[in-house]
Amino acid sequence: MAKVEKKFLISIIPFLFFMGILVYCVISTIYTSFTDRMLIGKAAISPTFIGLENYEKIFRDPDFANSLKISSLFTLFSAILGQCTLGLLIAIILKQKKIKFKPFFEICLLFGWLVPDMAAAFMWGSFGAEAGFLNKILVPLGVTARNWLAEAPLTTIIIANIWKGTAWSYLLFSAALEAVPPSYFEAADIDGASAWQKFRFVTVPMVLPVLMTNLLLITIWTFGYFNLIFGMTTGGPGHATEVLPILIYKRAFIVSKLGYGCAMSIVMTIIVAALCVLYFWVQRRSKSVT
Predict the structure, then answer these.
(1) I need a labelling partner for 175 at 20 to 30 A (CA). Which of 95, 207, 266, 276 fits?
(2) How many domains does the chain have?
């Protein structure tokens, strides 16, 4: 018995070690958010405790309000309405038996997900340039050539993120649809249900738990997404694509206001946590209704 307990204690040492690091980082970030710590200068060595001053500045900072709006739009259109909706639609289409070359379409879909963020940023930067491939497609159709990253930056990064992340939603919904018994759809066909009725009364209720899980995950990931956007625009032009993670990075590491950046990161964490609570509440409500 003693040997078993000893082995158990040894096995959880790595877990306790990494959990200790995580807890230390969280506590350190929270404490730093109440100080005027800088990356350089006197405040980098001996920061002063300033209480809620950083948090008061956040809610008076127009750049924070702008970044919160951009992050919300980016999350709504690229993740919730984009990746989730498109992933479900593609999963339903590719589930049809008459669809040929399904593996080919899946490989094309997964390609965007597998490409590293910085490589994808370079690809879309070149794709949307004035001499890029997108204009070569649109100019013959009568559309004026333009630099899409400069003239429609937010729309461009939203489309790029949809291309990058839809594969995740597709894989989840494809697995969920495979678990739906074919007899449900056969019964709906016998009852004379239309395609919309089968989608509404059979498909949606069966994939609803997966749908809510997917919405939760992609909302968390997209609201805190940094790499692709920074690689494509660095938050520009101006502040047009300056989502919260990029604003926090600039405040903490470019302007060197580490305490202020930590306070922003805490506020962003609270916002994401509130969204998670909302999703859990909606999921419970949907279960009680069904």
Answers:
(1) 276
(2) 1
